[in-house]
Write a structure and sequence with these properties.
With about 625 residues, the chain is of the alpha/beta class. It folds into 4 domains: about 90 residues, Signal recognition particle alu RNA binding heterodimer, srp9/1 (2-Layer Sandwich); about 180 residues, Rossmann fold (3-Layer(aba) Sandwich), CATH 3.40.50; about 70 residues, Helicase, Ruva Protein, domain 3; about 190 residues, Methane Monooxygenase Hydroxylase, Chain G, domain 1 (Up-down Bundle), CATH 1.20.58. Helix content is about 50%, strand content about 10%. The protein is built from 22 helices and 14 strands. The strands form 3 sheets. Strands 6-8-9-10-7-11 form a 6-stranded mixed β-sheet. Strands 1-4-3-2-5 form a 5-stranded mixed β-sheet, with helices on both faces. Strands 13-12-14 form a 3-stranded antiparallel β-sheet. Helix 10 links the parallel strand 8 and strand 9. The longest helix has 29 residues. It binds adenosine-5'-diphosphate (ADP), magnesium ion and zinc ion (ZN). Adenosine-5'-diphosphate binds next to helix 9, helix 13 and helix 15.
Length: about 625
């Protein structure tokens, strides 16, 4: 179809060209153009007849006398001959009309016949707008067809959207196919139990979460895990992908969601899975181009379906995202996706397990050491590891080997690493070392201070976009109030990372930026909001308020205190930070040895559980 359309366009252009050339040739050679001054003299010499005057030209015929005059005037004796050869005794001529008030008078005096011509006949006026319109329609049809042929399904298939509900009776994926995410599996076991036997839970009146949100970096196995839950429970798996909704026609998205929930009711017990929830569930009003109406309609439909849904029927709504921070707050409210399951990057052990899963079906020589491979792939996610195994198998096949050898794996890793480095997701060994000391610094300070939460886990596996490692502290009890010394301790912990870098490397890196931000924030709040500064006394100084979820820029609130007070506030804030820095430094200096030891272990193991950390600390104390 495209080919034909293109052909006809060229055909059209060629015809036009030929037509223009022909017209020029035919008319150009037969009509003598004369200048206006020549024309005036021709009139005086009785050289013209049968004039037709139009708004901008004067056409007519040259008499033999006129031709002779013209030949003389132009000093071109052959002109008479040439005109004769054309076979016309009275050739046509044309001149451009000029403003000439005496023309009619002159014509009358010489007795030349003349008539006027009305420019616009109905035909010309019709053609003058019909032709361009036809041309436009032609071009429009041409492009329309082109677009239609290119896009999947074409523009003509309005309503047949890409967003399909995939229904799988049985996913055949089980937890055996997933590895390295044991914690997430553990959390999902309850859901599986429920799906296997919803009636049992109903009798007991237990409350089952409606929505489960899997959160984690791309490629960590969120989609896989969701399918495994369905496979383990042996229930149907209905899935939709959020990004399919983005380019859709009005009303279709909402209809799909309605359809999805209606199907789920019939098939219960089952799982509804909405992949890439962030594409659909971006906070409303966050789009830079103003609202994205269609997406919002779909999101609203999803929210209302979730509200009107009864879990007792045995339907669990699962969803996955790698950007939980941009989700609409309404989505994660109680009664919706209120259960969050972290699917994190795998640890060393986890990576070994994932390698085991993916090498189940491939032939390898016995010398292949999966642990070694896991050690060589820090920071990689399940999808990367699956990729490595695949790549290694291809390499071995290309080399006509009967089984994959270690060298094939090594080369495959190099290739995948090169690809990831381009995308900036890998740390070099030096960076890893800095991060290890930094995180150990946080952890040791946290464990040394009396009021801080215990360390739950220290990790140097990169996580999220900004964070290179993390130290996770778990509160031992719910807190509503915090004392001044608790806040001070918290600041010391935040600065611990940077202090460790200072002590060990004698310089600081950019990795502490977020820590500093948070420490400064605490210090500011202490001075300005909580009246915790002795110098300024128990007074609050209004600070600008930001809306909780939206990153809108608000004009700063006008200050209701003097410049002098402002300086005093700044001084107090920096004194608090200074003090926290000092305390962190004192702690880490006294524990320099254990800092080195823990950092080295962390560097090797990548993850250190809180209890192991405390065991190390205690062994030192004895
Ligand atoms: P996500 O949805 O988190 O982006 P996927 O579930 O799509 O990641 O993972 C892509 C592929 O990577 C999976 O099909 C699987 O082959 C592999 N994979 C990822 N994580 C794991 C894991 N934890 N265990 C085993 N395979 C994994
Ligand atoms: Mg996915
Ligand atoms: Zn830090």
């Amino acid at each position: 179809m495209t080919k034909l359309a293109r052909f006809s366009i060229w055909y059209f252009l060629a015809t036009l060209l030929v037509f223009v050339i022909l017209q020029n040739y035919l008319i150009g050679h037969r009509v003598q153009t004369v200048s206006y001054s020549e024309f005036r003299e021709l009139v005086d010499k009785q050289g013209v007849k049968d004039l037709v005057v139009s708004s901008d030209t004067i056409d007519g015929k040259l008499t033999p006398a006129g031709v002779e005059f013209l030949a003389k005037q132009r000093q071109d004796p052959e002109l008479v001959e040439r005109i004769k050869q054309l076979g016309e005794t009275e050739p046509a001529f044309s001149t451009v009309r000029m403003e000439d008030a005496t023309l009619l008078e002159r014509l009358d005096k010489q007795g030349v016949e003349y008539s006027a011509r009305l420019e616009k006949t109905w035909l010309t006026s019709l053609l003058s707008w019909l032709l361009p319109m036809l041309l436009l329609i032609g071009i429009w049809v041409y492009f329309f067809r082109k677009i239609g042929a290119g896009a999947a399904g074409g523009l003509m298939t309005v309503g047949k959207s890409k967003a399909k509900v995939y229904v799988e009776g049985e996913t055949k994926v089980t937890f055996k196919d997933v590895a390295g995410v044991e914690e997430a599996e553990e959390e999902l076991k309850e859901i599986i139990e429920f799906l296997k036997n919803p009636a049992k839970f109903q009798v007991l009146g237990g409350k089952i979460p409606k929505g489960v949100l899997l959160v984690g970096p791309p490629g960590t196995g969120k989609t896989l895990l969701a399918r495994a839950v369905a496979g383990e429970a042996k229930v149907p798996f209905l899935s939709l992908t959020g990004s399919d909704f983005v380019e859709m026609f009005v009303g279709v998205g909402a209809a799909r969601v309605r359809d999805l929930f209606a199907q789920a009711q019939e098939k219960a017990p089952c799982i509804i899975f909405i992949d890439e929830l962030d594409a659909l569930g971006k906070a409303r009003g966050l789009s830079p181009m103003g609202g994205h109406e269609e997406r919002e309609n779909t999101l609203n439909q999803l929210l209302s379906e979730m509200d009107g849904f009864d879990t007792r029927k045995g339907v669990i709504i699962m969803s996955a995202t790698n950007r939980p921070e941009i989700l609409d707050p309404a989505l994660i409210r109680p009664g919706r996706f209120d259960r969050h399951v972290l699917v994190d990057r795998p640890s060393l052990k986890g990576r070994e397990a994932i390698f085991k899963v993916h090498t189940r079906g491939v032939k390898m020589v016995p010398e292949v050491d999966l642990f070694k491979l896991a050690a060589r792939t820090p920071g990689m996610v399940g999808a990367d590891l699956a990729n490595i195994v695949n790549e290694a198998a291809l390499l071995a096949a290309r080399r006509n080997k009967a089984a994959i050898e270690m060298v094939d794996f090594e080369e495959a890793i190099d290739r995948v690493v090169a690809g990831l480095e381009k995308r900036n997701r890998m740390m070099n060994p030096r960076e890893k070392e800095i991060v290890a000391y930094h995180e150990t610094g946080h952890a040791l300070v946290a464990e040394s201070l009396p009021t801080t939460d215990r360390v739950h886990r220290v990790s140097i596996i990169p996580r999220g976009v900004g964070a290179l490692g993390y130290t996770m502290q778990l509160p031992t009890e719910d807190r509503y109030l915090m004392t001044k010394s608790e806040l001070e301790d918290r600041m010391a912990v935040l600065l611990g990372g940077r202090v460790a870098e200072e002590l060990v490397f004698d310089e600081v890196s950019t990795g502490a930026q977020n820590d500093l931000y948070r420490a400064t924030d605490i210090a500011r709040s202490m001075v300005r909001e909580y009246g915790m500064s002795e110098k300024l006394g128990p007074m609050t100084f209004e600070r600008e308020r930001r809306p909780l979820f939206l990153e809108t820029v608000m004009p700063p609130a006008s200050k209701d205190y003097s410049e002098g007070t402002a300086q005093e506030i700044d001084r107090e804030v920096s004194a608090l930070i200074e003090n926290a820095h000092h305390r962190a430094k004192a702690i880490l200096e006294s524990k320099r040895e254990i800092l080195e030891k823990v950092a080295k272990i962390l560097l090797e193991k990548e993850v250190l559980e809180g209890d192991d950390l405390r065991a190390l600390l205690n062994s030192k104390a004895e």
